[in-house]
Amino acid sequence: MGDTMKVANWYNNKDIRIEEVPTPKPGPNEMLVKVMSCGICGSDIVEWYRLPRAPLVQGHEIGAEVVEVGEFIEKYKPGDRVFIAPKVPCMKCDFCQKGHFPVCSVIKERLPGGFAEYVLAPQTLIEHGTYRLADNVTDDQSTFIEPLACVVRAQRLAGLQKNLNVMVLGCGMSGLLHVKLARANQCSVIATDINPKRLELAKSLGAGITINAAKDNVVERLLAENGKPVDVVILCASAMSAVEQAWQCVDKGGVVVFFTVPGPDKPVTIPINEFWTREIRVLTSYYCGPPDIVEAINLIESGSIIVDDMITHRLPLKDIAEGFQLVMDGRESIKVIIKPNI
Q1: Which residues pair with 83 in a beta bridge?
Q2: What's the domain range around 104?
């Protein structure tokens, strides 16, 4: 480990620079970890969401190895393999007490971006957001912990239970995780996408009905093959056409979950009068909380949710711009993982 390290500094999706910065030294209550794997999240490419904080080192889906600990850190030691959450709630404020961990009012510290050779973990994240990885969980699998935890929380908020009909609009990485988890919970799954390859994968993962939204009338196909609307619609696509499909595909007493949202320049109109008489709920789900992370780790560790079949690309840090392009294009990639230390 040298005095300097490489990081990928993101200015925008077309301007990602490999820069050299001093390697941080941990203070008494800090810990330095070597980033072995870091996934590119779909939110990493959403410029309206990220640009206000640019330039920044992104990357919040990590698998890492402890290399140096401060003198007061006793729980972890060099050589430990860990997942570290990007942020942790206080667990004490009114929001946390109600289970709304993502909107904790006192979150202050965040994990520095994982698109770097090393990351310095602050005390709060060491104490409340670091999880030792089991021997059977790989660094690459660790990059799925945070996104799977977000999926766990969304499906819990939606009230998913055995034998419900669930429709997943958009079969990128998050959408496919929704397919996997819904099937693991013994739900029937209908999946849509505009990419035939992604639909093939969704079908192989257990989606009973797959619909090509670029070619077919989604609502007509759903009713023809399923016989009725669905109990739960999970939006994993930000296209306005997907939003309109969600309104038309949800059944009475059902729920629409916005797992992703259109840009702020695209107003969404909820058919509230119709939904009022049909008792349809509209929910948003953003990020996750500690209980969701624990459940996600257990799902991966136990083999209940297999994630390796979604990894399409592994790239060194120097090729991160290519990785972002693959995710933006979406035709050939599902999960792109950056390996900063190869």
Answers
A1: 131
A2: 4-144+307-339
Tell me whether strands 165-169 and 230-235 are parallel, antiparallel or unpaired.
parallel
Specify the residue for token string 């998050």.
174
Q: What CATH number is associated with residue 31?
A: 3.90.180.10
Please count the residues of the chain.
Answer: 342
Maximum distance among all Cα pairs of the chain, rounded to whole angstroms: 65
pLDDT tens string 141-195: 999 999 999 999 999 999 999 999 999 999 999 999 999 999 999 999 999 999 9
Q: Token digits for 105?
A: 């009012």
Residue 237 and residue 268 in one domain = yes
Residue labelled with tokens 């009909």 = 165
Q: Give the number of domains in the chain.
A: 2
Q: Tens digit of pLDDT for each residue in 13-61?
A: 999 999 999 999 999 999 999 999 999 999 999 999 999 999 999 999 9
DSSP string covering 171-215: -SHHHHHHHHHHHHTT-EEEEEES-HHHHHHHHHTT-SEEEETTT
Neighbours of 52 (CB within 10 A): 8
Look at residue 297 and tell me if it is in a domain: no
- Neighbouring CB atoms inside 10 A of 37's CB total 24
